[in-house]
Write a structure and sequence with these properties.
Layout (H helix, E strand, L loop, with lengths): L8 E5 L2 H13 L4 E3 L9 H14 L4 H9 L7 H4 L9 H12 L12 H17 L2 H11 L2 H6 L4 H21 L4 H15 L20 E5 L8 E6 L14 E4 L5 E4 L9 H26 L2 E7 L21 H4 L6 H7 L22 E6 H4 L49 H13 L6 H14 L8 H17 L21 E11 L3 E2 H9 L5 H6 L8 E2 L1 E14 L2 E8 L12 H10 L2 H19 L5 H4 E8 L11 E4 L3 H11 L2
Parallel strand pairs: 1-3, 1-4, 2-3, 4-7, 8-12, 13-14
Antiparallel strand pairs: 5-6, 9-12, 10-11, 12-13, 14-15
Helix pairs in contact: 2-3, 2-9, 2-10, 6-7, 15-16, 16-17, 18-23, 21-23
Length: 667
């Protein structure tokens, strides 16, 4: 007497395409349905889209791979939006719409000048995640960038698509745990898995597509995949497909000796005895296969089986009994004259359940024993609508916070292309210039500088092209000028330049860790910094902005571009590629104070000072901050000018401030 529940029903189809059609139809009626058994997850559309995404992440400078993602299902961009990119001309409306799609936001704002460079940097960020924190972190970031969980759930069979994607990522992670594959090796393995799935449609153990959820749902599968299973009620919608159909095209059948033969139908006016015989054998084999599938389908039910017929073969029931001679007459005589009406009376219309909705967000749990950084703890410097890659990992980027530039066409390039201000801004530039100074010896001659600059420009896609030579010259001059620049004196020390330093006394790209105190709130830091006269102004600049964050329990980490020892004093130095609107006057000392405030660099170097000071205390016997710490230099590389004394921000935090911050930060 109880109504039939969706989970008690199975729909058995002859083909995978039939299963897809049934799933689509049930989804349109809001009837929960799930595909069971018989599908290799690598043959799914999600596997192909996932491979396209990884190609773009592994090769972020390949426009073709980025196009493939952005034009695909996950990118959801129209082709006409991408056409201007091919000429390096990106009008603002295209750029804004592109970035709105990427960030999944309704509006970005007319003030943004975001374009292909921003998209490129997004994929570069994902690539950096892959190389630094691993494949798992990269996948987590990609899911958020493209908002895949929410978007997939909004599509037809969204739960199953999301389940497929999760299974694909899990299988990929399993492969990486078994073998340490490089990104290119992993891409090859994924490609092979997808190709092999065409031969193994049902999937080997582990690659068989999983059920999206345990909720009761109509179970859809192929007849072949249902062997050995039983269901309370079975529907078979495709048995009216003609057995042995399509025999006019290329066919395969076995000859009398059991050998597989192939043939193609000759023109109608020609007669070919060989093909006629092969065609008859093909029809017979197809009929036998049809009978086997029919038997399997009819014997899967416990309570009842319904064969669905669409009327395409007319009202004659002979189609379902193609060879009456194979059946007793007594059985044929039992065919009811009103069979069509009886089938119509069996039609069942279920009550559709409520539409499925995405589950509410999970509550945010308190995190412990994690790694945090300055960038995760500092006040935000970016408008929420302009943040393309969310901060979903706590690893400090090498990029400066200068907004990315629009790509310039040939007509838009400045005439003074040799000017370092004409060099594009953004994260890629920052990483490129960091690499130059990391790899270069500070006493390098002009030829050595040029060779290193050329190599780094090539690595980051800035070499070659119409302006390759001018860029090489501009950056080489910038590096030479930086190494010769007289750094201002701090704490009664003398003036010196980087080319006078000993290589053995320089530590580049130094990563630090220290155990942080739990539940440290930014309010305590603000109170300590406000008491220091030099840094009080930075705190006052935050008066209209919210900075109320709690440092999680765990480790604080960061990367210092360079620290070195000179004449018994230890210094911190950070390279900055900020363009600051491309005006030399903006690099004057008083103007740089504003840039340090806007980008929160002052908090960054205070963290760095605390970390290095603690390291030196623990490793040098006679070290003291008052006697041995020289100070901090922030070199804004575009604006360094010896004559105008521009481009350097120098500071030596007060010993009392460093001591108080150390007590607040370090556990």
């Amino acid at each position: 007497g109880e109504p039939v529940a969706p989970g008690q029903i199975a729909v058995l189809c002859r083909t995978n395409d039939g299963c897809k059609a049934v799933l689509k139809a049930l989804n349109q009626l809001n009837i929960p349905a799930v595909r069971l058994k018989g599908q290799n997850v690598w043959s799914s559309d999600e596997a192909k889209s996932f491979l396209e995404l990884l190609y773009a992440i592994a090769r972020p400078f390949s426009r073709n791979h980025i196009y493939a993602v952005m034009l695909g299902t996950w990118g959801a961009l129209k082709r006409e939006l991408l056409m201007p990119w091919q000429e390096n001309k990106v009008p603002l409306p295209y750029a804004a719409q592109l970035c709105r799609r990427l960030a999944n936001r309704a509006e970005v704002g007319n003030e943004s000048e975001l374009a292909y460079e921003q998209v490129l940097e997004t994929f570069q960020n994902l690539q950096e995640l892959w190389h630094t924190l691993g494949f798992s972190s990269c996948c987590q970031a990609a899911l958020q960038v493209f908002d895949l969980p929410v978007r997939l759930l909004q599509e037809e069979q969204g739960e199953q698509k999301l389940a497929n994607l999760k299974q694909i990522i899990e299988l990929t992670q399993q492969k990486l745990s078994e073998q340490r594959l490089s990104p290119e090796e992993l891409l090859t393995w994924l490609q092979q898995s997808i190709v092999e799935s065409k031969k193994d449609r049902e999937g080997k153990e582990g690659s068989e597509a999983r059920k999206a959820s345990d909720n009761p749902a109509v179970q859809v599968m192929t007849i072949h995949g249902s062997k050995g299973l039983e269901f309370p009620i079975v529907f078979v919608p495709e048995m009216h497909h003609k057995a042995g159909g399509g025999s006019q095209g290329p066919i395969e059948a076995h000859d009398k000796e059991g050998r597989l033969q192939a043939g193609i139908a000759p023109p109608k006016e020609e007669k070919n005895p060989y093909f006629t015989e092969l065609q008859n054998q093909y029809k017979q084999e197809q009929l036998e296969e049809h009978r086997r599938l029919t038997y399997v389908a009819l014997t899967r039910t416990i309570h009842g089986c319904r064969i669905l017929y669409d009327g395409s073969q007319g009202n004659n029931c002979d189609y379902f009994l193609p060879e009456k001679a194979a059946l007793p007459d007594s059985l044929l005589d039992k065919q009811p004259s009103d069979w069509k009406q009886k089938l119509t009376d069996l039609a069942w219309q279920g009550e559709a359940p409520p539409p499925l909705q995405a589950p509410p967000p999970r509550p945010v749990l308190k995190r412990k024993n994690l790694i945090s950084s300055f960038s995760a703890f500092a006040p935000s410097t970016q408008a929420p609508g302009l943040q393309i890659l969310p901060q979903i990992y706590e690893h400090e980027s090498e990029a400066d916070n200068d907004p990315p530039e629009m790509l310039l066409s040939d007509a838009q390039e400045t005439e003074e292309i040799a000017d370092i201000f004409a060099f594009p801004a953004g994260e890629r530039t920052g990483n490129c210039w960091h690499e130059i100074f990391e790899q270069l010896s500070f006493d390098a001659d002009e030829e050595q500088i040029k060779n290193q600059v050329q190599a780094s420009l090539q690595d980051y896609g800035f070499a070659g092209g119409k302006y390759g030579a001018e860029r090489l010259c501009a950056v080489s001059d910038m590096v030479q000028n930086t190494l010769n620049y007289p750094l201002p004196a701090l704490a009664n020390a003398g003036v010196f330049s980087l080319n006078k330093l000993e290589s053995r006394k320089c530590i580049k790209e130094w990563e630090f860790f220290f155990t942080a105190k739990p539940e440290l709130n930014s309010e305590a830091l603000k109170e300590a910094i406000r008491k220091d006269e030099t840094h009080r102004g930075f705190i006052e600049d935050l008066a209209t902005r919210s900075w109320n964050r709690t440092l999680i329990e765990g480790a604080m980490t960061g990367y210092i571009d360079l620290w070195f020892e000179h004449q018994g004093r230890y210094y911190i130095l950070d390279w900055k590629s900020n363009r600051i609107q491309g005006k030399p006057q903006n690099f004057a000392v008083n103007e740089l104070h504003g840039e340090m405030s806007r980008q929160r660099y002052w908090l960054q170097y205070l963290f760095y000072t605390v970390a290095l000071n603690r390291f030196l205390q623990e490793n040098l016997r006679d070290y003291s901050y008052e006697k041995n710490f020289g100070g901090v230099y922030y070199l804004f590389l575009r604006g360094l000018d010896q004559e105008g004394q521009r481009g350097v921000y120098a500071c030596r935090p007060a010993p009392s401030l460093v001591q108080e911050l150390s007590e607040l930060l370090i556990n």
